[in-house]
């Protein structure tokens, strides 16, 4: 289960004096909120793509007045699984949100195998930011959560982005629609993801507009004791572009 730590800014005596004068909603905005947690997943499925098997995915974040900075990672139990480390700077107000994310993987599969049939990977350096040699991918996001439906648009604007058939940067993009609902005592979500134009970044190569993620997920807290419960989730995903199908289960701590 994720732990949230709240620390009020300012001197406590001043806060007490103002508590009767300032609305509670405004007081809540003057808190720095921090969170730390981790998920254990049976498979790492991202935007309709299989990025690894059983993985531990830690997270750490801090936010203040709609501004947030978060770190997220993924470590698979198999040696062939790349280790991922992402940093996200975002801002949200009401249902509107914008963010910039730096994705990084510690190794990249070259597509070749050695004389023993073992896959060959290149090792990536974190502080390497060359225009044609970096392993970082920088992505911008803008979205709005209407309540019954959340819409998010993502575009890679720098780093190791995919390319078009002519070799030029694709500015690889992704449109995600998400609709939550409740049924049978569970919290459900239907996700629909689309790649709008050609790129080598998604699914190996995508020649144009295509639907790459149709998912149905559910979550529920499993009660362990009277004072402790573990959030669980499961998701079925199909990718019409690659004809792939996945079923993943996870625990949150």
Describe this structure in words.
The structure is a single chain. The protein has 253 residues and is mainly β. The chain has one domain: monomeric porin ompg (Porin). Helix content is 5%, strand content 61%. The chain has two helices and 17 strands. The strands form three sheets. The protein has a twelve-stranded antiparallel barrel with strand order 2-5-6-7-8-11-12-13-14-15-16-17. A two-stranded antiparallel ribbon has the order 3-4. A two-stranded antiparallel sheet has the order 9-10. The chain is globular and about 55 Å long. The termini are close together. The model is unreliable at 1-28 (pLDDT under 50). This is FrrB. Keywords: Signal. Residues 1-28 form the signal peptide.
List the helices and strands and how they pair.
Blueprint (H helix, E strand, L loop, with lengths): L2 E6 L3 H7 L5 H6 L1 E11 L2 E3 L2 E4 L2 E10 L2 E10 L7 E10 L2 E10 L1 E7 L5 E5 L12 E10 L4 E10 L13 E11 L2 E10 L14 E16 L2 E12 L4 E9 L1
What keywords describe this structure?
Porin; mainly beta; disordered N terminus; 2 helices; single chain; twelve-stranded antiparallel β-barrel
Distance between the termini: 3 Å
How many beta strands in the DSSP annotation? Answer: 17
User: The CATH topology, please?
Assistant: Porin
Identify the overall geometry: globular
Largest sheet features: 12 strands, antiparallel, barrel
Strand line-up across the major sheet: 2-5-6-7-8-11-12-13-14-15-16-17
SS summary, helix count: 2
Q: What is the strand content? A: over 45%
Count of the domains = 1
Give the C-level CATH assignment: Mainly Beta
Question: Mean of residue pLDDT?
Answer: 87
The helix fraction, in percent, is under 10%
Which architecture per CATH?
Beta Barrel
Low-confidence stretches: 1-28
Give me the strand/helix succession.
EHHEEEEEEEEEEEEEEEE
Computed over alpha carbons, the radius of gyration is 21 Å
Counting copies of identical and different chains, the oligomeric state is: single chain
Q: What structural category characterises the helix and strand content?
A: mainly beta
Under CATH, the homologous superfamily reads monomeric porin ompg
Keywords: Signal
Signal peptide: 1-28
Organism: Bacteroides finegoldii
Protein name: FrrB
């Amino acid at each position: 289960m994720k732990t949230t730590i709240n620390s009020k800014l300012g001197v406590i005596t001043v806060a007490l004096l103002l508590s009767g004068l300032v609305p509670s909603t405004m007081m809540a905005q003057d808190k720095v909120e921090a969170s730390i947690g981790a998920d254990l997943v049976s498979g790492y499925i991202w935007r309709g793509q299989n990025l690894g098997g059983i993985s531990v995915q830690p997270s750490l974040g801090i936010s203040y007045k709609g501004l947030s900075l978060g770190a997220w990672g993924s470590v698979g139990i198999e040696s062939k699984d790349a280790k991922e480390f992402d940093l996200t700077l975002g801002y949200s107000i009401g249902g509107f949100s914008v963010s910039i994310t730096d994705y990084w993987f510690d190794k990249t599969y070259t597509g070749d195998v050695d004389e023993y049939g073992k896959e060959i990977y290149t090792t990536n350096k974190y502080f390497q930011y060359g225009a044609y040699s970096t392993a970082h991918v920088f992505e911008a996001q803008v979205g709005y959560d209407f309540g019954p439906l959340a819409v998010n648009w993502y575009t890679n604007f720098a780093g190791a982005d995919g390319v078009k058939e002519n070799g030029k940067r694709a500015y690889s993009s992704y449109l995600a629609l998400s609709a939550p609902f409740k049924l049978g005592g569970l919290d459900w979500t239907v996700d629909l993801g689309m790649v709008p134009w050609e790129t080598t970044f998604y699914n190996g190569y995508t020649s144009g507009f295509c639907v790459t993620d149709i998912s149905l997920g559910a979550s529920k807290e499993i009660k362990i004791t009277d004072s402790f419960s573990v959030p669980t989730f499961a998701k079925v995903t199909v990718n019409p572009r690659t004809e792939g199908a996945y079923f993943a289960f996870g625990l949150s701590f």
